[in-house]
Amino acid sequence: MIYNVFNKDLLTQCGKSQFKEQHMEPTPIPDIINKEKEYKVEEIRNHRKQGCGTQFLVHWKGYSNEHN
Question: Does the pTM of the predicted model rise above 0.70?
């Protein structure tokens, strides 16, 4: 197992995005039901067989494509 270790004193906060494409809208706050976070699926975009199961590419409601 590989771990990355960073000295927090050497880190700096990133500035504003230079390009419009770099800006991401804040993600919505998920609903909490029975102390569990619940997200809403807007669309199943794709699927594939993996081993004995199936994996799905999910587009979440209120999120951008980067969060699929």
Answer: no
33 within a domain of the structure (yes/no): yes
Mean pLDDT of all residues in 9-23: 74
62 located within any domain: yes
Give me the percent of the chain exceeding a pLDDT of 90. Answer: 22
Rounded distance between C-alpha atoms, residue 49 and residue 44, angstroms: 14
Residue 16 lies in a domain: no
**Which residue carries 């050497």 as its tokens?**
10
Length of the chain in terms of residues written: 68
Beta-carbon contacts of residue 23 (< 8 Å; ≥ 6 apart): 17
Widest Cα–Cα separation across the chain: 46
Domain that holds residue 41: 28-68
Report how many domains make up the chain. 1
